[in-house]
Amino acid sequence: MLGFSAINDLDLDGDAMWSSFATPPDVLRDTGLVCLGAGEANGVAPGFVRRALPSHGLVLVTAGDGWYARPGERRPERVIAPAAIWLFPGVEHGYGSGPAGWHEHWILFSGAMTRVYRELGADSRRAVVGTRHGPDADTIGATFAGLREALSTPGLPAALRASALVQRLLLAAAAGLPERHPTHDVLGALEQTAAAPTPIAERAHRLGLAPAGLRERVREQTGMTPQEYILGVRLARAQSLLAETRLDIATVAARVGYDDPAYFSRLFAARVGVPPRAFRAQQSRDRETPIGRQPDSGSARDDDAAR
């Protein structure tokens, strides 16, 4: 398949907005990175909550401010330009502009190379990052103009141009991520071993820390306890596996650290809001929620989830 593309120009509260979506060749998805869609909006943008994408995404905000929310968090996180919002498959989220509006540029992408961007520091536990040292507004605008043209043209050459432009944006946005420091290294170690049934005291020992020191490091960066952080990593990975693969529930549970699929299903339903099977089914539905509804406050924490 050489791909199909469609582009729409709309007017949003008197301000221009465009979006374009494409079905790129499978060979690009299997070996590299593909652009599935892109768009821009300037003004007051409708917000939504509890959406989960089947692909990766990146939102660049170059002017104005808004908010980002995830189920289970007490209040939305403020987004102030310049900023990037990294979106991951199957991870529920919501965002929207503030009352004064913002300038938003977004891309959807998929493919084998998406794993690289986690290694560069963009992970599902730090979705919103500042980009003061990343791409400037003029560079972003020029790149999106090229993307708009490439996505409106069917065929492999245009799909290759779109892929190259998306990689340029991703690399520039990743370059704006904060330098990793010891706390980030601790978080990275917890992420890499999240599925292991390792007690918190042993995790701390392996990192050369006392349990209290580990709690302090993790809370300083995330506002969570180590148990809560590990639970979040496990559930984010479970959501991605449910959205991106056909693995059965027991296999998904085992891959993220739970030998008992029934316990995993109860925990997933309590934290995410729906059972794993229902979550997987919802990925094919349009579940955007109009602005005005606030993100759920989430379920009570399960202190034993990360044991």
Give helix and strand order, one letter per element, not per position. Answer: EEHEEEEEEHEHHHHHHHHH
Query: Could you give the distance between the termini?
Result: 47 Å
Structural class: alpha+beta
Q: Rg to the nearest angstrom?
A: 20 Å
Can you summarize the main beta sheet? 9 strands, antiparallel
Mean pLDDT: 79
Query: Approximately what portion of the residues adopt beta-strand conformation?
Result: 15-25%
* Helix run count: 11
Low-confidence stretches: 1-7, 9-15, 284-307
What is the number of beta strands? 9
Coarse shape? globular
Helix content: 25-40%
Kindly list the characteristics that best describe this protein.
single chain; 307 residues; alpha+beta; nine-stranded antiparallel sheet; 11 helices; 9 strands; disordered N terminus
Give the SSE map:
Layout: E1 4-12, E2 15-23, H1 26-31, E3 34-43, E4 48-51, E5 56-69, E6 77-80, E7 83-87, E8 93-110, H2 114-119, E9 128-130, H3 137-151, H4 156-175, H5 182-192, H6 200-206, H7 211-222, H8 226-244, H9 249-255, H10 261-272, H11 276-282
Antiparallel strand pairs: 1-2, 2-3, 3-8, 4-8, 5-6, 5-7, 5-8, 7-9
Helix pairs in contact: 3-4, 5-7, 9-10
Structural features, described:
With 307 residues, the chain is α+β, with helices and mostly antiparallel strands. Strands 1, 2, 3, 4, 5, 6, 7, 8 and 9 form a nine-stranded antiparallel β-sheet that branches. The protein is globular. The protein is built from eleven helices and nine strands. Residues 1-7, 9-15 and 284-307 have low confidence and may be disordered. Helices cover 40% and strands 25% of the residues.
